[in-house]
From TrEMBL:
The lineage of its organism: Bacteria, Bacillati, Actinomycetota, Actinomycetes, Kitasatosporales. Its EC number is 3.2.1.21. Belongs to the glycosyl hydrolase 3 family. Residues 716-917 form the Glycoside hydrolase family 3 C-terminal domain. This is beta-glucosidase. One of its GO terms (molecular function) is beta-glucosidase activity. GO terms for cellular component: membrane. It comes from Streptomyces pristinaespiralis (strain ATCC 25486 / DSM 40338 / CBS 914.69 / JCM 4507 / KCC S-0507 / NBRC 13074 / NRRL 2958 / 5647).
Length: 1004
């Protein structure tokens, strides 16, 4: 038989089985191609991890003349997929028993079954297309040498819980809408593989076409109440059942006592053949009331199914905890915490200190099994569909699982909503922090925080990993746009965002449906890492080493966190980076291991009483083995660990370390007390589920109006020769550039997905669309690459800049630079040579444009405005004036970096704080007027109004006078005092600011 197979025959079907159905012959009939087209493609954690593929003619091919073969060397993860075209109908595999293929084994020595390299095989079920389908997975081991037939019945596939791009559709393997398959190849060593003759085989098991479901996995009920467990049958394709389905049920096996805590129930229900899919029966489980205070008790309802697939887990009725002091909302939080903590086991405490990514759960039941305290959605970890309503339902589903624990401690769910609820399609996407810093308006910063909080909490999420209080000191850093600016005084001034998100500083507003817990990040110094100091993969600066004196550490990097503690920030997240304090001879220390900074400075000196949450898998970067990582980080002051995937090992290791005495019980109790305190303040014990009353406000016109105002204030006018801006609605405008009509580009990273992406990724208005709405009767023509004729236009607007990125992937030197693309440069050159032009740079950091500055009439730093392009149009057409100021120094060249306000040598293209205005005529009088302004500034400062709005307006007047004098002739002599003036104003020294501006005026 083997001889006939190698000669080219497929396995023959048994007499009573249908003929096999080919899936892939690997003769080249399905090409190498990427979605949305049909094809076979590779993927991996980076370019090196993608396997190399070819269709290879081989004499030993089991089927046809060619096979698919490849090589790989995977350090992270990698594999290949065949996905069907998105514009074609999915395939129906319901008639078959399973899928099989020939695999060429690489082992030259006999191996016991199961001991070879493990290969994961997945199929793509349901959904809109292969990229939006459920993944169902199984695996096989390469234990043999030469060709071997791998047969996998569909009953072996399980729903993939560790990673699911869509977050689940129905978690039923329907098989009637199949979009393809994928192979995940083994890591750790180079390898080769070959596969051939993939086909569907056999006759489907009728039981696989039906599945018994319950409407929930957990049924909480108050003592004395009755739980109603709904049992239903679902079929592939929603057709009637082909055979009868019987479900026998009985209670028992939980922590509740039959006859004392509940009345035992036994019986059965039958769904006859022909029953409609979705039909249900209800089983009632009545609980008894004894009146004594108790923890929660469980009553499993055991189900035995005949004729269909049984539920993946046993449903549980839970008699709610009742009568215990920690449940009394009238007691002070401190007493509630103490009572609950005194009841908890070490395992329960370890669970509270654990945060897992939702997709990492092996099953949702692990929330209760491991007493998990927190879940998060990483960037792009979203439900399907990605709507506000689906988010609320998803979080509630997880929250329900926590009700199956002894003390029903609710989860605290977290998300990176760093510029609006940015994972959710249709939400209001704010300018990134760099743009908020450019706006220089603490009130608008607070309002953007309030909008974000309202939208986040409406989806059931009480915790936001924001704001980033980093002080960006080198714009080669891929996180530069997450900072409010390069000046700690500016960052501190924008921390009103914390009040917008949390409300009152004492936390009394946290239980409101429009407030969330904040996370001040990343403590401390992540914006000061040296270029080339990173040891994380190909990163050049992110997660590197911040080498500073103690004086610089205090003044630059610690100051914003001191302010955050004063403002009541509920959590703090350490940085991935290392801190190397000059003169202490300790060398670089990972911040997640830095006890002096976390315990000593943050908690003891600053008095931070919230809890410290680690960054994503960050403790794994601490030198040493995993037990060492756990004890070092927890002893350094971390209270909760964002594991985020290996929660089983973390909880086990933490318990072992405590049992061995290497982590004290007092340290664990302190951590858990801090976590529980915030959960009580958030009102989660009383209201664990989403309050959806504000769901209709997610992405509302009112919220977008706040974002639009923030966008307008963030626009920085750097040059405006000939008063090109504002535009007139009567002008004929030629628009060009890559970022004029791209919503994804103007939103940047951390938008819908972690790295962000170009295109129409959510709901919003591009800059071009905003311009057309602002001047509906004007002629506004768009040519992205400026290839259209330029004759006959009054003015050109060229919108250029960056495409999205996040974190270290965006580091300069890691595939990124500060140059405009060749296409953008060509568009600028062509348009600005043909007519008066305004160039808008949409980016998260300054771009090197000095060599083209002379040919540009007007230049605008547009930063990353988010979804509201109308705000850019507002200042372009003069509905609002330009008022923004540079939050970072704009360099002449990359060689100048790092360059920051206060540097001894300071000769930028545009200084920190620079920003022209279109608000009106600049006051006359020159230095005489500056003297009068100086007198007024001294009076304000003497009367305690140095940080007032009047002081800002007064210094703003002086700044306009100086900018008019300097014009386009910025020199080191004028730039240095000009930049330092803005720093002094932000510190509450308007008199000193005017003195610096006077010096800049004289040097101009």
């Amino acid at each position: 038989m083997l001889g006939s197979l190698i000669a080219g025959a497929l396995p023959s079907a048994a007499a009573d089985e249908p003929a096999p159905v080919p899936v892939d012959r690997f003769e080249g009939e399905v090409p190498f191609a990427n979605p949305p087209a049909e094809g076979i493609f590779t993927w991996g954690s980076d370019a090196d991890d993608q396997p190399k593929l070819e269709f290879k003619e081989r004499a030993d091919a089991p089927e046809g003349s060619k096979v698919l073969q490849g090589s790989y060397d995977i350090s992270g993860w990698g594999g290949l997929s065949h996905e069907y075209a998105v514009d074609q109908a999915p395939r129906d595999w319901t008639a078959s028993k399973g899928i099989r293929f020939w695999w060429y084994g690489q082992n030259t020595a006999p191996l016991p079954p199961g001991s070879g390299k493990r290969i994961n095989f997945e199929i793509k079920d349901g959904g809109a297309n292969g990229g939006a389908s459920e993944l169902w997975t199984t695996s096989f081991t390469d234990d043999w040498e030469g060709w071997h037939l791998v047969e996998i019945p569909f009953s072996d596939f399980v729903y993939r819980a560790d990673y699911q791009p869509v977050g689940g559709i129905d978690q039923v393997l329907g098989l009637n809408e199949m979009w393809g398959w994928a192979l995940t190849l083994p890591t750790g060593a180079p390898g080769t593989f070959a596969v051939d003759g993939m086909e569907l085989y056999g006759k489907a098991d009728p039981a696989l076409k039906a599945k018994v479901l319950t409407d929930a996995a957990v049924y909480p009920v108050d003592e004395g109440g009755t739980a109603q467990v709904k049992i239903s049958v679902a079929t592939t394709g929603s057709v009637p059942t082909e055979e009868p389905v019987t479900v026998e049920y009985r209670t028992g096996g939980g922590s509740a006592e039959a006859g004392a805590d509940y009345e035992p129930v036994t019986g059965s229900v039958t769904f006859p053949a022909g029953t409609a899919s979705g039909e249900s029966r209800t089983v009632a489980v009545r609980t008894d009331k004894d009146g004594s205070a108790e923890s929660a008790e469980t009553v499993p309802l055991q189900l035995t199914v005949t004729g269909a697939k049984a539920p993946a887990e046993t449903p549980q009725v839970v008699v709610n905890a009742h009568g215990l002091p920690y449940q009394n909302a009238r007691l002070p939080v401190k007493k509630r915490v103490a009572d609950l903590l005194s009841r908890m086991s070490l395992a329960e405490k370890a669970g509270q200190m654990t945060q897992a990514e939702r997709n990492a759960l092996k099953s949702q039941g692990d929330i209760a099994s491991y007493d998990l305290g927190s879940l998060l959605s990483g960037g792009g970890s979203v439900p399907t569909p990605n709507t506000p309503e689906a988010w609320a339902k998803m979080v509630d589903t997880y929250q329900l699982r926590a009700q199956a624990t002894r003390y029903q401690i609710p989860l605290i769910y977290g998300v990176d909503a760093v510029h609006g609820h940015n994972n959710v399609i249709g939400s209001t996407i704010m300018p990134h922090n760099i743009g908020i810093g450019a706006g220089r308006d603490p009130r608008i910063a607070e309002r953007t925080g309030a909008v974000t909080a309202k939208e986040v909490r409406a989806t059931g999420i009480p915790w936001d990993f924001a704001p980033c209080l980093c002080v960006t000191r080198d714009e080669r850093w891929g996180r530069s746009y997450e900072a409010f600016g390069e000046d700690p005084a500016l960052v501190t001034a924008m921390e009103t965002v914390i009040q917008g998100m949390q409300g009152a500083r004492n936390g009394k507003d946290l239980d409101r449906s429009d407030k969330v817990l904040t996370s001040a990040k990343h403590f401390v110094g992540d914006g000061g890492t040296g270029f080339g100091s990173s040891s994380t993969g190909s990163y050049t600066i992110d997660q590197g080493i911040t080498k500073v004196t103690r004086e610089e550490l205090e003044a630059v990097h610690l100051a914003p966190f001191a302010e955050a503690v004063k403002r009541g920030a509920g959590t703090v997240m350490p940085s991935y980076s290392s801190l190397d304090i000059i003169g202490d001879d300790a060398g670089p220390v990972k911040m997640h291991a830095h006890a002096e900074m976390i315990n000593g400075v943050l908690k003891d000196r600053m008095g931070f009483d919230g809890f410290v949450i680690s960054d994503w898998q960050a403790i794994d970067q601490i030198p040493g083995d995993y037990p060492s990582d756990v004890r070092t980080s927890v002893n350094a002051g971390l209270d909760m660990i964002m594991v985020p995937t290996n929660y089983q090992e973390f909880t086990r290791t933490l318990k072992d370390e405590v049992t061995a005495g290497r982590i004290s019980e007092a340290r664990v109790d302190d951590a858990v007390s801090r976590i529980l305190t915030q959960k009580f303040k958030l009102g989660l014990f009383e209201k664990p589920y989403a309050d959806t009353g504000n769901l209709d406000e997610v992405g509302s016109a009112e919220h977008r109006a706040v974002a639009r105002e923030a966008v307008a204030k963030s626009q920085v006018l750097l040059k405006n020769d000939g008063a090109v801006l504002p535009l007139k609605k009567s002008q004929k405008v030629y628009v060009a550039g890559s970022n004029a009509d791209d919503l994804g580009n103007q939103a940047g990273g951390w938008t819908i997905s972690w790295q962000g992406s170009s295109g129409e990724i959510t709901t919003g208005t591009t800059i071009l669309e905003g311009m057309k709405r602002a001047a509906p009767d004007a002629t506004i023509d768009y040519s992205k690459d400026a290839s259209a004729a330029t004759d006959g236009y009054d003015v050109g607007v060229v919108v250029v800049g960056e495409t999205p990125y996040a974190e270290g992937i965006g580091d300069v030197g890691n595939g990124h630079d500060l140059e405009l693309t060749a296409a953008d440069k060509a568009a600028v050159d062509k348009v600005c040579a043909a007519m008066k032009c305004a160039v808008l740079v949409v980016s998260g950091r300054p771009q090197l444009i000095g060599d083209r500055l002379e040919g540009i009439d007007a230049l605008v730093a547009s930063w990353l405005p988010g979804t509201e392009g109308d705000g850019v149009a507002d200042v372009l057409y003069g509905t609002r004036p330009f008022t923004g100021q540079l939050p970072v120094t704009w360099p002449k060249s990359e060689a100048q970096l790092p360059i920051n306000v206060g540097d001894a040598a300071y000769d930028p293209l545009f200084p920190y704080g620079w920003g022209l205005t279109t608000s009106g005529r600049t006051p006359a009088g020159g230095e005489l007027t500056l003297r009068a302004v100086a007198v007024a500034a001294k009076v304000l400062q003497a009367t305690g109004r140095g940080r007032s709005e009047q002081a800002r307006e007064l210094v703003g007047t002086a700044r306009l006078i100086v900018q008019q004098k300097i014009g386009g002739h910025i020199t080191e002599a004028s730039a240095k005092p000009f930049a330092e003036a803005d720093h002094l104003l932000l510190t509450g020294d308007p008199a000193g600011a005017v003195a610096k501006l006077t010096a800049a005026y004289r040097a101009g």
